[in-house]
C-alpha cells in the first residue's frame, strides 16, 4: 500500500506540474498574440493611418485708396487719436497673413505743394495709425506721390521704412521703384510690383533720382519683361495698377488691355486703384482682376458710391490662389471704414 500511495502521490505531482506548465505556455502565447492583434493594428492593415498634417491656408487682404490728409485728418484730430481711421478694421487685418493698400498721400512735413488744389500730405503722426492697423505693404505708385515734390516723397519712403512697412512702385532710384516686394508666407512665395498710369511720365524714377514706376499702353513690352522676370522667383505674382477714370464704375479699355497683358505675361492677380468707386472683379484665364477697389479711407462724402469700397480677400493653398472673395466696405462720414464680413 505504501508503494502504491507513493506512486499516486508522484502521479498527482506530475499532473499538477504538467497543468501549471500548460497554463503558463498558454498565457504567454495569448499575451503574444494579443499584442499582434490589437484593434488598432488590425485596422492599420486595412485603412491608412490618418495624417495630422493639415494644409495651412494663407489669407491675403487688398484694400483701396488710403488718404490720411484733409478731412480724414480733421476727424483724427477731433477724436484725438491717430489710430482713429483704423479702429474698426484692426482685428480683421490682424487675422490676415498680408495686408496691402494704396497710400494716396505722402506722410511728411517736408516739401512744397506743386500746384494742384488736390494735393495730399499727411501729418507724420498718421504713421501711428498705419502701424497700429497691421498693414504690411503699400503702393506709392499713384498720381499724388509727388504732390509735394521729391523731398516729401523721399521723406515719406524713409518714414515707411523706419515703421517697418514695405512700399512698392516707387523709390529713390529706378532700381528701387521697380523692385519686387517678396513675402514668404507658410511656404508660399508672394511677389508684388506696382505701376501708375496716372500723374505724369516725368514722375518716373530715374537712374539716380526718386520717383514712381510708370506704365502706359505703349510700354507693354517692358511690362511683359518685368513680369516674366519677377515670376521666375515667386509662386504668386500680384501686380498693382493705379489706372482708369475717376468715378467710373466700369473699367476703361486701357485698364482691360493692361490687365490682360499682365496676366498673359504671368501675373496671378491684378489689383486696381484710382477710380474712387468700386469696379468689377473678374476672372481671366486662371487669374483674377480687381479693376478698382474704390476708397478705403477717404473723405469723399459727396456720394454714396465714394463712401463704399471693396476689400479683396484672397485665399492661398499649395502655392496657388484657391478663392477670391470681395468684401464690401462702408465708410462713415468721419472717414472710418467698416468691413462687412460674410
Automatic annotation (TrEMBL):
Does the keyword Membrane belong to this entry? yes
Q: Membrane-crossing residues?
A: 12-33
Report whether Membrane shows up as a keyword of the record: yes
Q: Which residues form the Capsule synthesis protein CapA domain?
A: 59-300
Q: Which UniProt key words apply to this protein?
A: Membrane, Transmembrane, Transmembrane helix
Which Pfam families does this one have?
PGA_cap
- Signal peptide: which range, if any? none
What the entry lists under InterPro entries is as follows: Capsule_synth_CapA, CW_Biosynth-Accessory, Metallo-depent_PP-like
UniProt record similarity statement: Belongs to the CapA family.
PANTHER family per the UniProt record, alphabetical: POLYGLUTAMINE SYNTHESIS ACCESSORY PROTEIN RV0574C-RELATED
Task: Provide the protein name.
Answer: CapA family protein
Organism expressing this protein natively: candidate division CPR3 bacterium
Amino acid at each position: 500500500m505504501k508503494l502504491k500511495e507513493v506512486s499516486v502521490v508522484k502521479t498527482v505531482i506530475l499532473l499538477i506540474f504538467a497543468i501549471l506548465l500548460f497554463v503558463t505556455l498558454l498565457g504567454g502565447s495569448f499575451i503574444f498574440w494579443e499584442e499582434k492583434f490589437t484593434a488598432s493594428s488590425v485596422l492599420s492593415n486595412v485603412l491608412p493611418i490618418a495624417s495630422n498634417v493639415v494644409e495651412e491656408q494663407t489669407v491675403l487682404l487688398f484694400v483701396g485708396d488710403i488718404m490720411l490728409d484733409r478731412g480724414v485728418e480733421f476727424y483724427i484730430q477731433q477724436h484725438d487719436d491717430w489710430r482713429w481711421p483704423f479702429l474698426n478694421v484692426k482685428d480683421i487685418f490682424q487675422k490676415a497673413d498680408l495686408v496691402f493698400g494704396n497710400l494716396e498721400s505722402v506722410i511728411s512735413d517736408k516739401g512744397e505743394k506743386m500746384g494742384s488744389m488736390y494735393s495730399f500730405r499727411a501729418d507724420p503722426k498718421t504713421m501711428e495709425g498705419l502701424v497700429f492697423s497691421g498693414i504690411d505693404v503699400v503702393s506709392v505708385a499713384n498720381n499724388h506721390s509727388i504732390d509735394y515734390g521729391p523731398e516729401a516723397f523721399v521723406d515719406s519712403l524713409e518714414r515707411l521704412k523706419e515703421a517697418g512697412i514695405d512700399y512698392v512702385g516707387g523709390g529713390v532710384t529706378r532700381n528701387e521703384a521697380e523692385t519686387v516686394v517678396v513675402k514668404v508666407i507658410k511656404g508660399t512665395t508672394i511677389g508684388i510690383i506696382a505701376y501708375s498710369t496716372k500723374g505724369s511720365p516725368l514722375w518716373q524714377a530715374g537712374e539716380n533720382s526718386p520717383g514712381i514706376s510708370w506704365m502706359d499702353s505703349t510700354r507693354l513690352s517692358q511690362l511683359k519683361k518685368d513680369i516674366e522676370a519677377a515670376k521666375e522667383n515667386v509662386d504668386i505674382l500680384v501686380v498693382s495698377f493705379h489706372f482708369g477714370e475717376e468715378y467710373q464704375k466700369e473699367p476703361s479699355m486701357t485698364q482691360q488691355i493692361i490687365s490682360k497683358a499682365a496676366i498673359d505675361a504671368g501675373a496671378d492677380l491684378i489689383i486696381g486703384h484710382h477710380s474712387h468707386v468700386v469696379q468689377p472683379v473678374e476672372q481671366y484665364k486662371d487669374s483674377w482682376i480687381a479693376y478698382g477697389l474704390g476708397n478705403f479711407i477717404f473723405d469723399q462724402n459727396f456720394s454714396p458710391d465714394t463712401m463704399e469700397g471693396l476689400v479683396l480677400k484672397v485665399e492661398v493653398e499649395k502655392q496657388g490662389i484657391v478663392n477670391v472673395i470681395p468684401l464690401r466696405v462702408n465708410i462713415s462720414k468721419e472717414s472710418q471704414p467698416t468691413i462687412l464680413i460674410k
